[in-house]
Amino acid sequence: MKPLGKRLEGPVAAKSQPNDPQTESPGGITFGKAAAQGQWGRAWEVDWFSLASVIFLLLFAPFIVYYFIMACDQYGCSLMAPLADIATGRAQLSDIWAKTPPLTMKAAQIYVAWVTFQVLLYVLLPDFCHKFLPGYVGGVQEGAVTPAGIINKYEINGLQAWLITHLLWCVNSYLLACFSPTIIFDNWVPLFWCANLLGYAVSTFAMIKGYFFPTDARDCKFTGSFFYNYMMGVEFNPRIGKWFDFKLFFNGRPGIIAWTLINLSFAAKQRELYGHVTNSMVLVNVLQAIYVLDFFWNESWYLKTIDICHDHFGWYLGWGDCVWLPYLYTLQGLYLVYHPVQLPTHYALGVLLLGLLGYYIFRMANHQKDLFRRTDGRCLIWGRKPKVIECSFTLADEQRQHSKLLASGFWGVARHFNYTGDLMGSLAYCLACGGGHLLPYFYVIYMAVLLTHRCLRDEHRCAHKYGQDWERYTAAVPYRLLPGIF
């Protein structure tokens, strides 16, 4: 389960040869055919540790999510209270399960209507935002070249879908009153079962499709492990028809568009229960909405991320986008429904500044990377000519290619400083909830583990590709995330 995995990766290289089939590596560094079997996509062979990790996640990830929402629903968001009750005999697992709201027809109808509406917005409504929003890139865009030599086209209309969805939500909330704005919170646990059903259904369908009727068999990978194939995916870009792309839709539609709606529903519930919305809830809504809108404004850029350029579509993305993302990335808002926190003004301003600073670093680091890549290094970074590490690599056909690694601006501070900004923003979401419980801090802990792992994964690819040139780069930029520390 990725975070809005929509993070562009670390150190950035200037343009590679445009005619080479390539996928995206860390920070815009591109692999040509060189990477084909060893570095493109997920692994071909699975060691015992990877297999054990896969089986663990398949078995326990749904229970982890259930535990968090159950802890809020039955124990006021205390993570330790359920364990203490079970350990002391005050409660049995069957007692907790009996108190858990079941799947309901109402929740099923809401969820089916939601997903259907997003499918229709994705497939049937061409983007018009790019026609009147300066600087926004939407409409039909090309993705990276797959190892099979396929260049997929995508209808980039996520910002449009987000705007239409939220406009209708506001019209209903303030004018029509067809349903209560607390509808998501009121059906939170029953909707969880619906999300799981869709997550497993789409993951299973993608698995079957990859085996029996793939979009392009050359872009499939199989291992000897059924569990690994199921979790990490077989098919690189499963599609139905010309435009319905599984990865782009599930990574960038139902879960992420719902993120801000879920927060709004939590705010509405807080107001219903306590008569007002706390400044902490406002902070969470604003800071997370900035992040979501940033994703949709830069959706065309998302086609360059590790999700699109390396990951296959399996349970990891399918279930993760349907369940993990909307249920665990919104824990701060859920917590604040049960524990409304009114922050001191100076503390709230500090949290806001931390979140905005983190977003600024995240966005500007990615902007510097994109500028460097688009101009082949002929640009100014922080008003100066960028510092460049010249490097080379060999393609599968033994052709030697040359590239440039950026070591200026934020990319001279640390090799993945965009992740540092991301973590600052993540910490701000959690700090907005005060210090009463551990639960709202799960997000920043998870993000720290995930992005650290992604750093190591990215750099393994780069070291394999660039060899001694990569060593020169790491000598010039010695830290990964935190200057002077890591």
Report what the structure shows.
It comes from Physeter macrocephalus. The longest helix has 30 residues. With 486 residues, the chain is mainly alpha-helical. It is globular, with a radius of gyration of 23 Å. A two-stranded antiparallel sheet has the order 1-2. It has a two-stranded antiparallel sheet with strand order 3-4. The protein has one domain.
Brief summary of the model shown:
By secondary structure, the protein is mainly alpha-helical.
SSE blueprint:
Layout: E1 23-24, E2 30-31, H1 48-75, H2 81-88, H3 93-98, H4 105-124, E3 139-145, E4 151-156, H5 158-176, H6 183-186, H7 188-212, H8 226-232, E5 239-240, E6 244-245, H9 246-252, H10 254-274, H11 279-297, H12 299-302, H13 306-309, H14 315-328, H15 331-338, H16 345-374, E7 388-394, E8 400-406, H17 410-413, H18 417-431, H19 442-466, H20 468-476
Antiparallel strand pairs: 1-2, 3-4, 5-6, 7-8
Helix pairs in contact: 1-14, 4-7, 7-14, 9-10, 9-14, 10-11, 10-14, 10-15, 11-16, 11-18, 16-18, 18-19, 19-20
